[in-house]
Specification:
Order of helices and strands of chain B: HEHEEHEEHEEHEHEH
Radius of gyration of chain A: 21 Å
Shape of chain A: globular
Number of helices of chain A: 13
Structural class of chain A: mainly alpha
Oligomer: heterotrimer
CATH architecture of the largest domain in chain B: 2-Layer Sandwich
Strand content of chain A: under 5%
Order of helices and strands of chain A: HHHHHHHHHHHHH
Number of domains of chain B: 2
CATH class of the largest domain in chain B: Alpha Beta
CATH topology of the largest domain in chain B: Alpha-Beta Plaits
Number of helices of chain B: 7
CATH architecture of chain A: Up-down Bundle
Number of strands of chain B: 9
Chains: A mainly alpha (390), B mainly alpha (353), C mainly alpha (536)
CATH class of chain A: Mainly Alpha
Chain lengths: 390, 353, 536
């Protein structure tokens, strides 16, 4: 529970550090290869498969899993649930790092990353859903940065700046929720333009709604999942409030998640009915869709519901990992599995080890940054000088 | 549990609003149907005239200064494999087996169809594509970021990306020779080169008329359908074929909705969300704040009542105790005075004896 | 307890995963395993006899008849092993003369089929199924019929008339409704198909039954008779097995007589086809003749077709007996104008002549002639020849027809050599190629050779210059037809939308003709065969 950083006391050679170090080294090598050899040198992308796991995982999944920020902020500030307060800063940090990594991953995927500001400063293609995604992500990253800044400012001891930053919280939260709704749904809306390429079970004019609701599921589950991991690895950084509230957070968020997943399953089935696609469920793809909906989301819903009712925190924690996996599976399905479903097997895409390597590298960077911040800044505890509760 | 019920209702409202905002309702926004710029140009490809000589491919390569191909253009064995466009070819001719009526092999041209409402132009977030008034869809590599969304959007899978270029990767596709030929009033390279005039060039409206007349004159030769007349909202490149189009590798299931219409409702929801979300969220915030305030007031009131009651009880106890104490004190004083008097009396008697 | 539960859970997950992986095989676009394609046989009979007695519970049985005929022959038995006879007529049904009840019919099939199979099996030979329902009632049949329908054309008919020694009553009969029996009406013989249709009707069996009962019976009797005469080396008769008439390969082996002698059915040599309108008010008077009549050479037309049924599709009477000018019920209200002129019919005059144009020797030119629904009147006159002078008014129609036919001329040739340029040098376009030295006269002569034996072409190409119009199109027939550049110039002329430019015109004309006529040299894909590349 000491506030001082304890890293100087530990030796730098730990299993995590070694593995992370290797990954970082490989990642740096791959980065050089990517930027000197072009996308073709590193990825398995082709003209038929223009988007691979850097979009499917790093972008779509990354944004979905970083949704904990706005969900927790909504719960605490908008819905006034003070008892989840201790989950706020870790969620905002996860969100901020998540979005920062998404933007970093975008630099790898896009052909000319230095031109990323072009839509805003040179020529805006406002008919494009991607423009809206880009604008909202850019703004939201700023919002998250500002929401996170009080923690950093507290660490730096800049009281005045910190107090000023805190004053904007509510505005930032509302703005953040609006932006999140827009870009979470728009990431799904990206696929609306290609109905001939996405399998009908996953294609629907309601994709934006599905993506938005599943982002809430992802956010709730990620908060529980991240808190589980934090308690496992950073328990010594946590203050009493955190330790005391952790189970309440798990139970509360788990209960909420079970409702949202139930609603999500309902609207998915309604969508299937609206498009009269029931007989497609009898195909191979149909079975996989059912596995995603019931095997992943359905089981998660059950797990959360049972855990919340029987007050089994451990079950909720395991279920949160399963729910996170469910959202990952969904994003992969829409962007990689159901996409180009009509092409023969020889034309389908599978990532190269280098693409996977970069993705792992980016996630590792995120973990390292998380660890750095959490061990120094008042994320898992409250800074004694600023113990004014909102 | 009343908290969760209210929350539930709040979410339900939110979901309902978002559902209505994103759903198909917004389609009713327009009844407009873009039929192309007036007098815009197009090309009619007639596969009953095509002999698969690849002269068009050679001309395209020449006019657009594309890199030399792996195998020369007079190598017709290339046609034994199905090809798609790639950075070295804006247009490919593919060969397909004949049918019961057509004993000779059939050919089909694959390349940008210059849609009237292009998916690529709609999807590009830096407006790198332009649907010119001439009908050609052009690409500007000076603003392209390389996000490749256009490749996803194009229903015909035409744009191709220079994956092997590290610093200047471009999208490549047929431009209908806009910069090199059209603006000078010349014919596109493939059109000019074809020996059997399989490509007919002219105003799109005229091409449709030509196509219909050809079908009328030779009903046994053509399928009664002009591909591109309505597909994806209409394209500038039209096709006539002697066999069903799926037999020559062209998708028949694309529908007639222009691509931008697929995303227009999602985009139209953005201002709705921006407008309604603040109301919704601040409304819930105000409600929850008020709920907290009321709870606080009720708590304080209850506390005050209890405090008052406790105080009253305490006061009573204290006064009783005080009374008792003063009574005892008086008794004690009396007893002490009595004792003192007795003691004084004793002393007096002792002195007197 | 907890350990057992978690083990159960893990097992459940494992099995679910296996099932999922197995069934989602198709997700990554894995090619599906194709089942074995069925056997193609000409002797497939689908046994669904119970259909008329109720719903089928099992899929119909796929029965291979020739297989069984061979097996029965091996046992030195004949058709009577399975087929009962009544009054010398063999029933096509299996071991019964009539369908009685559902149960009885079913029993006959089950018991008799399987009994025979069992006996064969006992004898140590291969046999059909004896027990399992699905082996006969195959849901996905292992054998599929590729039966060809045999056409009883003039050649076969002639061989039969020789074998029957010109006794028409051997096969041809008509039905007396009053006496309720068959009789032979001499001079009124017609095709079996005029009466025996696709389905069996009251008192009239289907063409399938008719042909099998009549033909096979006769063939069997002939075979039996031949067997008794060992000196008849040629112990041949018609086929009795399915494959003999229905298998494509066997059909090729049937002997064809070229130049079949003309059938003797009192048919006319020439006919004068007149469109007449009877006067309803005065029926006794001669009807009004509407158009110039058409003299029709019936005898020659008999030679052009394999059967009479091509034109006489319903009976052997005249066309006008059913197709009147205004249309009659007997003719399904098809008017005579339609009957003669409809372009997409194979029975009408114009339809048949039109289909001849798709022959490779004609298609080179005719494929590129567009279909025009309105013909010029000059075409009508080619069939509706002008009436000769008044002095012929007393002639009988047939005589008039003969006269008109005689006066018809055939154009067998075109202009003389000195009027046809030998070589045309086409150097209008070349910037990449040398000029084309077009062998003009040789091609014209070739076209003339192609129509040397084609009377249709020779008649309808009424002028010397008609054949030039193949390439010198959209202009009148003349000795000096227009050059290509008279009309074809720059392509994509808005005033002439359908006219190709010069280069396109040349290539479309040449390639098109070569492709239609099946000419392999010059190869369209080998440019230098027509024009050498220019030396730079």
């Amino acid at each position: 529970m000491s506030q001082e950083a304890t890293t100087t006391e530990k030796s730098l050679v730990s299993p995590f550090n070694i593995i992370a170090g290797i990954i970082v080294l490989i990642g740096l090598y791959l980065t050089v290869r990517r930027f000197t050899g072009g996308l073709g040198a590193v990825t398995n992308l082709s003209d038929n498969n223009a988007w691979g796991i850097w979009i499917g995982f790093d972008l779509l999944t990354g944004v979905a899993l970083a949704a904990g920020g706005y969900v927790t902020a909504a719960a605490v500030y908008i819905f006034g649930m003070k008892k989840y307060h201790s989950a706020l800063r870790p969620a905002v940090l996860t969100g901020f790092l998540g979005y920062a990594l998404v933007v970093l991953a975008l630099h790898y995927d896009v052909g000319r990353p230095w031109r990323l500001p072009y839509p805003f400063v040179v020529q805006a293609g406002t008919s494009s859903v991607l423009f809206e995604v880009g604008a909202c992500v850019a703004l939201y990253l700023t919002v998250l940065f500002l929401e996170f800044s009080p923690a950093a400012l507290e660490w730096l001891g800049l009281k005045k700046a910190r107090n000023l930053a805190v004053k904007f919280t509510l505005v930032l939260v509302v703005f953040g929720i609006i932006l999140s709704t827009l870009h979470q749904s728009s990431l799904g809306a990206l696929f609306l333009i290609a109905p001939s390429k996405v399998h009908p079970l996953w294609y629907s004019s309601f994709i934006p709604v599905y993506f938005f609701v599943s982002s809430i599921i992802a956010g709730l589950s990620m908060v529980i999942f991240e808190s589980t991991l934090s308690h496992r690895f950073f328990a010594d950084k946590m203050d009493e409030a955190h330790l005391r509230e952790k189970d309440d957070i798990a139970l509360g968020f788990g209960k909420a998640a079970s409702y949202v997943i139930a609603g999500y399953i309902a609207i998915q089935l309604l969508g299937i009915g609206a498009d009269d696609e029931w007989r497609l469920l009898g195909t191979g793809y149909g079975l996989w869709y059912l596995v995603e909906l019931f095997g992943f989301f359905g089981v998660a819903c059950l797990g959360f519901a049972i855990g919340a009712r029987e007050k089994k925190v451990q079950l909720i924690r395991w279920t949160s990992a399963w729910a996170v996996l469910a959202v990952i599976v969904n994003r992969f399905n829409v962007s990689l599995v159901a996409f180009n479903y009509h092409l023969p097997a020889s034309d389908r895409y599978f990532p190269s080890w280098m693409e996977i390597g970069i993705s792992v590298f980016l996630v590792t960077l995120g973990l390292i940054a998380f660890r750095f911040i959490v061990s120094r800044m008042p994320i898992l505890y409250e800074h004694p000088e600023y113990e004014d509760v909102h | 549990m009343s908290v969760s019920r209210r929350k539930f209702l709040g979410w339900l409202t939110a979901a309902g609003l978002s559902g209505s905002a994103f759903g198909k309702v917004a389609h009713a926004a327009t009844t407009k149907h873009f039929e192309g710029h007036p007098d815009s140009l197009g090309v009619l490809y007639d596969n009953t005239k095509c002999i698969g000589c690849r002269t068009c491919e050679a001309a395209c390569n020449n006019v657009n200064d594309l890199p030399p191909p792996d195998r020369p253009f007079d190598d017709l064995s290339v046609l034994d494999n199905k090809r798609r466009t790639d950075p070295k070819k804006y247009m490919v001719i593919n060969k397909y087996a004949g049918s019961v009526n057509v004993k000779t092999p059939l050919f089909a041209r694959t390349g940008c169809n210059h849609c009237l409402e292009p998916a690529c132009a709609s999807s590009c977030f830096v407006r790198a594509y332009t649907k010119t008034e001439s009908g050609a869809v052009t690409y500007d590599s000076s603003v392209c970021v390389g996000c490749r969304y256009c490749m996803l959007a194009c229903p015909f899978n035409i744009p191709t990306f220079e994956y092997d270029a590290a610093f200047t990767p471009r999208i490549r596709k047929c431009t209908m020779c806009y910069d090199t030929r059209l603006v000078k009033g010349e014919l596109p390279g493939c059109v000019e080169a074809c020996p059997s005039e399989s490509f007919t060039f002219g105003k799109r409206t005229d091409l449709l008329r030509i196509a219909r007349e050809r079908i009328r004159r030779y009903p046994g030769r053509y399928l009664d359908h002009i591909y591109g007349e309505n597909e994806m909202g209409g394209t500038s490149w039209l096709y006539l074929s002697g066999v069903p189009f799926r037999k020559i590798g062209m998708r028949e299931d694309l529908g007639i909705t222009p691509a931008p219409q697929f995303t227009s409702s999602a985009l139209a929801a953005v201002p709705m969300v921006v407008g309604t979300w603040p109301l919704l969220l601040m409304g819930i915030y105000a409600m929850s704040k008020r709920k907290d305030k009321i709870a606080k007031e009720e708590k304080e009131q209850a506390l005050a009542e209890v405090t008052a009651q406790v105080k009253a009880e305490a006061d009573q106890k204290v006064s009783e105790a005080w009374k008792k104490a003063s009574q005892e004190k008086e008794k004690a004083i009396e007893a002490a005075v009595k004792q003192a008097l007795e003691a004084a009396a004793d002393v007096e008697t002792e002195e007197n004896s | 307890m907890k350990k057992r539960r978690s083990l159960l859970l893990l097992t459940g997950i494992f099995f679910t995963a296996v099932i999922v992986v197995f069934f989602t095989n198709g997700v990554q676009g894995v090619e599906e395993v194709t089942s074995d394609s069925p056997l193609m046989r000409a002797d497939v009979i689908t046994i669904d006899a119970l259909k008329s007695l109720g719903d089928l519970e099992q899929p119909p049985v796929v029965f291979l008849h020739d297989l069984h005929t061979d097996a029965v022959e091996k046992q030195n038995k004949d058709c009577s092993a399975c087929h009962l006879s009544e009054e010398n007529r063999q029933s096509p049904k299996f071991k019964r003369l009539k369908d009685t009840s559902r149960q009885q019919v079913m029993d006959i099939y089950h018991l008799d089929c399987m009994q025979c199979h069992r006996e064969v099996l006992k004898a140590g030979e291969k046999a059909g199924p004896v027990e399992k329902c699905g082996e006969c009632h195959q849901g996905q049949p292992k054998a599929v019929s590729d039966k060809e329908l045999i056409v009883f054309d003039k050649s076969l008919h002639f061989r039969h008339t020789e074998a029957a020694k010109d006794k028409c009553e051997t096969c041809h009969h008509q039905y007396d409704e009053v006496a309720k029996k068959l009789f032979h009406a001499k001079g009124k013989e017609g095709s079996c198909l005029y009466c025996h249709k696709q389905q069996t009707e009251e008192n009239r069996i289907s063409k399938r039954l008719a042909s099998h009962l009549s033909c096979i019976q006769c063939h069997r009797e002939t075979l039996a008779t031949n067997k008794k005469m060992p000196q008849a080396k040629d112990q041949k008769a018609g086929p009795i097995k399915c494959s003999g008439c229905h298998a494509e390969q066997q059909l090729q082996l049937i002997k064809r007589i070229k130049d079949v002698p003309r059938m003797k059915r009192n048919q006319p040599d020439v006919v004068l086809i007149q469109a007449v309108m009877p006067d309803v008010k005065r029926p006794k008077t001669a009807p009004t003749i509407l158009m110039s009549p058409v003299p029709f050479d019936h005898k020659s037309h008999e030679k052009y077709n394999d059967t009479c049924r091509v034109c006489h599709h319903a009976d052997l009477n005249t066309c006008s007996s059913c197709h009147s000018v205004a249309g009659k019920k007997e003719g399904n209200y098809v008017r005579s104008e339609q009957a003669m002129h409809q372009l997409d019919s194979d029975r009408s005059c114009l339809g048949c002549h039109g289909s001849r144009q798709s022959k490779s020797s004609c298609a080179g030119c005719h494929a590129s002639i567009p279909i025009e629904s309105k013909q010029q009147t000059s075409y009508c006159v080619q069939c509706h020849n002008k009436q000769p002078q008044r002095s012929t008014a007393n002639l009988k129609p047939e005589q008039l027809a003969r006269m008109m036919l005689k006066s018809r001329t055939a154009m067998t040739d075109t202009y003389r050599d000195k009027d046809i340029p030998e070589t045309i040098t086409i150097k209008d376009l070349s910037n990449k190629y040398d000029p084309v030295y077009f062998p003009h006269r040789r091609i014209v002569r070739r076209l003339v050779t192609e129509i040397k034996n084609d009377k249709l072409a020779q008649y309808f190409h009424s002028q010397k210059g008609t054949i030039c119009q193949a390439c010198h199109h959209n202009s009148p027939a003349t000795k000096k037809p227009p050059r290509c550049y008279s009309c074809h110039g720059k392509p994509f002329n808005e005033a002439e939308l359908l006219r190709p430019g010069m280069k396109g015109a040349y290539h479309q004309q040449c390639f098109g003709c070569h492709q239609q006529m099946g000419i392999k040299k010059p190869d369209s894909l080998n440019c230098v065969e027509c024009h050498k590349e220019q030396k730079k």
